[in-house]
Structure to design on (191 residues):
């Protein structure tokens, strides 16, 4: 695990009801990105923003902690409650891809168990870490069974949308072939 950035949360309120979050290098004073957030936004919104920056750290691999070496800040915490605190963003390495984790991810994705898929991705587990005996990934299983929320989570975690099974089928092909147009449309819009 390595510390990548620190952040001053809500450090300079420029508008009523908003705050500015500066994500800074933990090793220098260099500002990597700055964004204004509504004070009602949550820590998860900051993580989603960091995921879209050039650093592109997957939100499931991010942990924010109160600096120095304080407790972890939870995704559901509101930014307004963190005003004035200094935070560090820690980039986590992927968890062990043992048989139990892989099996649980494939099962949960195929059965649409959103909270379990999210729990496993937060270990963090790579979204493409395992396959069935015919090469189906968690994304393929979720697409085939029309589990849109699971498909969205896996895509947000960086699942390979174009990966093919040993028969050449992709997640989009599974969704289309099974008449799951909502999943197919969502998959095409995330290209």
């Amino acid at each position: 695990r390595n510390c990548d950035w620190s952040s001053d949360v809500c450090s300079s309120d420029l508008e009523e009801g908003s705050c500015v979050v500066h994500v800074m290098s933990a090793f220098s004073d260099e500002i990597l990105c700055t964004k204004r957030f509504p004070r009602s936004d949550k820590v998860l919104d900051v993580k989603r923003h960091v995921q879209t920056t050039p650093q592109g750290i997957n939100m499931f691999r991010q942990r924010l902690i109160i600096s120095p070496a304080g407790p972890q800040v939870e995704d559901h915490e509101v930014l307004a409650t963190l005003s004035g605190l200094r935070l560090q963003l820690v980039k986590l390495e992927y968890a062990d891809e043992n048989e139990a984790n892989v099996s649980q991810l494939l099962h949960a994705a195929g059965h649409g168990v959103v909270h379990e898929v999210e729990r496993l991705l937060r270990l963090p587990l790579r979204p493409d870490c395992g396959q069935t005996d015919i090469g189906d990934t968690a994304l393929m299983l979720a697409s085939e069974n029309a589990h849109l929320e699971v498909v969205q989570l896996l895509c947000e975690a960086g699942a390979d949308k174009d990966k093919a099974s040993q028969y050449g089928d992709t997640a989009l092909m599974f969704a289309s072939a099974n008449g799951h147009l909502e999943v197919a449309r969502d998959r095409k819009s995330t290209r």
About this structure: The radius of gyration is 18 Å. The chain has seven helices and six strands. Strands lie at 2-8, 18-25, 31-38, 62-66, 72-73, 86-91.
